[in-house]
Amino acid sequence: MNTNESNHPVLKRTNKAFTPLELLDDPHIVTVTVSQAAAILGIAKSTAFKAYKATGFLLDGNQVPVLLCGSRTIVSIEHLRTALGHHNVHEQYAPLVANR
Questions:
Q1: How far is residue 98's CA from residue 100's CA, in Å, rounded to a whole number?
Q2: 14-54 pLDDT tens trace
Q3: Residue 57: strand, helix, or coil
């Protein structure tokens, strides 16, 4: 088995792009790119990058910080969920986890 392969549905490389709602709803996704965060927020990538460059955050009020990880700029999906009031993701999957 190739060490780069994974049986985990989120980690397995596919050509399928996630929709913004799928990114928010998947409890296995921890971070997204600034471009993906822009799509989730419904703003242009250029607007997201301008806000990040000016303040280090994607939204006013310092709600969604942008993290630097090497040369990558990433955003915590949990911060996006909180800023958007999209809290019940883990609760909706809790029965699935409890039944394992």
A1: 6
A2: 567 888 988 998 888 999 999 999 999 999 999 999 999 99
A3: strand
> Could you tell me which of 87, 78, 72 has the C-alpha nearest to residue 35?
72
Tokens of 93: 């999957």
Query: What's the gap between Cα 85 and its chain centre?
Result: 14
Spatial separation of the C-alpha atoms in residues 5 and 74, rounded to whole Å:
23
Rounded Cα distance, 70 and 83, in Å? 25
Residue 33 gets the label, from left (phi > 0), alpha (psi -120 to 50) or beta, of beta
Dihedrals phi, psi of 33, to nearest 5 degrees? -75, 165
Helix (H, G, I), strand (E, B) or coil at 36: helix
Q: What is the largest CA-CA distance in the chain?
A: 47
The rounded Cα 80 to chain-centroid distance in angstroms is: 7
Torsion of CA 37, 76, 92, 98, to 10 degrees: 150
